[in-house]
């Protein structure tokens, strides 16, 4: 994608940094890594449910490494694709859900936490459909949502780490639960912000600026 030009105060064109080109390709190295991550989700869940916490933790680490690698490769070698932009967050959500379900099935986390996280994601799906029906794309990610996701993505692996290595549970469990509690709270706070913004946007008459 060519960089856009903006007129400067002296009339000369000012170049803005070029954005990475987004292609419709499917078979790229980053996408193969993303598919690999997705294929590991049921394997991870199976080991976690059966109490093989060390193996589950290794799979989680491998998944995190491939997540880092596919992003680096996509940006460095101009392999950013539309399907890749969908696969990455989908894999993240599935690992989050799999960890919740696996730990809840063993009574290591309460089912209410599963309901809190899943119901908020369902809310975002409904909001996304509502925006699409009004001709709008997804809302920009709010900083609260980023912080909440960060907390949850660190909380659950830390809890799995405590199960894999019982000797450090006295540290891992309090840290993991602190992240989980804050993450769940901020997750819904961000969800309410998205809901309010969706209502505001949908009330704007067609043709007016958002």
From TrEMBL:
Query: What protein name applies here?
Result: CDP-alcohol phosphatidyltransferase family protein
Q: Which family does it belong to?
A: Belongs to the CDP-alcohol phosphatidyltransferase class-I family.
Top-level taxon of origin: Bacteria
Q: Which UniProt keywords apply?
A: Lipid biosynthesis, Lipid metabolism, Membrane, Phospholipid biosynthesis, Phospholipid metabolism, Transferase, Transmembrane, Transmembrane helix
Query: Could you cite one Gene Ontology molecular function of this protein?
Result: CDP-diacylglycerol-glycerol-3-phosphate 3-phosphatidyltransferase activity
Cell compartment(s), UniProt? Membrane
Query: An example of a Gene Ontology BP annotation on this entry?
Result: glycerophospholipid biosynthetic process
Gene3D superfamilies, alphabetized = 1.20.120.1760
Recorded topology in the membrane: Multi-pass membrane protein
A Gene Ontology term for the protein's cellular component? membrane
Q: Which InterPro entries match?
A: CDP-alcohol_PTase-I, CDP-OH_P_trans, CDP-OH_PTrfase_TM_dom, CDP_ALCOHOL_P_TRANSF_CS, Phosphatidylglycerol_P_synth
What Pfam families would the database entry show?
CDP-OH_P_transf (PF01066)
Q: Which residues cross the membrane?
A: 111-132, 144-165, 177-196
């Amino acid at each position: 994608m060519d960089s856009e030009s903006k007129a400067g105060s002296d009339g000369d064109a000012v170049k803005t940094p070029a954005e990475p080109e987004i292609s419709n390709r499917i078979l790229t190295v980053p996408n193969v890594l993303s598919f690999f991550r997705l294929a590991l989700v049921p394997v991870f869940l199976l080991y976690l449910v059966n109490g093989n916490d060390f193996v589950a933790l290794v799979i989680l680490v491998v998944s995190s490494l491939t997540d880092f690698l596919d992003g680096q490769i996509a940006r460095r070698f101009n392999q950013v694709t539309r399907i890749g932009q969908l696969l990455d967050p989908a894999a993240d959500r599935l690992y989050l859900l799999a960890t919740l379900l696996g730990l809840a099935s063993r009574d290591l986390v309460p089912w209410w936490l599963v309901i809190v996280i899943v119901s908020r994601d369902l809310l975002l799906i409904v909001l996304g459909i509502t925006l699409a029906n009004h001709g709008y794309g997804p809302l920009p990610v709010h900083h609260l949502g980023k912080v909440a996701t960060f907390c949850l993505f660190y909380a659950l692996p830390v809890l799995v780490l405590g199960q894999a290595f019982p000797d450090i549970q006295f540290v891992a469990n309090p840290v993991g639960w602190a992240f989980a509690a804050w993450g769940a709270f901020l997750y819904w706070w961000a969800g309410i912000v998205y809901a309010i913004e969706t209502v505001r946007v949908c009330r704007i008459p067609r043709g007016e600026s958002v």
